[in-house]
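Deliverable D2.4 — example input (structure tokens):
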């Protein structure tokens, strides 16, 4: 069975795995890699279990693993979270971290194990009101980026451009945006870049 199309479909349809506005709330109030990883893992479990593949979280310190019934790993995925404003300051910090995660996973992989990294970027399309309440994480960075670039659409576009440049020489399997709904009156989404390590 080819796992990659199912992984891509899982990411494309992931918004439907959350209750309405649940993803917006989670992404606004915490780093999102674990909620995304967990929903994706359950989606993959439903899709792959009938064929005998096992989907595991935190398998030998790998965020998500797809394992054959023999115990051999078929695929590894490591997730890393950031915010779109991070991409405007230091995108290489996060893309380098995903590269390091891939290398860590490669050390545990067999010769036929596919290794992926998933870079996630939370995006809020409006300023955070009352940032002093400290409910929305990194609200100062979010508000600063929106003030500098004037609109959420411009912040998103610049983030996509910056990460795209950083990943230009890597095998990007799929990019997209998961709509999260709204939280605290603000539209929230999560951008993603799925990268396969072909080294």
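Example output (designed residues):
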């Amino acid at each position: 069975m080819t796992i990659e199309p199912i992984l891509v479909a899982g990411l494309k349809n992931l918004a439907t795995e959350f209750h309405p506005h649940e993803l917006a709330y989670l992404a606004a109030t915490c780093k999102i890699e674990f909620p995304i990883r967990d929903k994706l893992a359950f989606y993959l479990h439903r899709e792959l279990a009938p064929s005998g593949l096992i989907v595991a979280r935190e398998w030998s310190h790998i965020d998500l693993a797809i394992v054959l019934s023999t115990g051999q790993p078929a695929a590894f995925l490591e997730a890393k979270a950031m915010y779109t404003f991070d991409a405007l300051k230091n995108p290489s910090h996060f893309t380098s971290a995903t590269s390091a995660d891939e290398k860590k996973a490669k050390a545990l992989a067999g010769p036929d194990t596919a290794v992926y990294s998933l870079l996630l970027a939370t995006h809020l399309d409006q300023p955070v009101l009352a940032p002093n309440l400290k409910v929305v994480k990194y609200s100062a960075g979010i508000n600063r980026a929106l003030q500098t670039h004037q609109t959420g659409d411009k912040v998103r576009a610049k983030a996509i451009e910056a990460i795209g440049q950083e990943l230009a020489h890597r095998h990007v399997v799929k990019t997209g945006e998961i709509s999260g709904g709204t939280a605290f009156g603000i539209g929230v989404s999560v951008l993603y870049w799925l990268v396969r390590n072909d080294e």
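The chain has one domain: 4-197.
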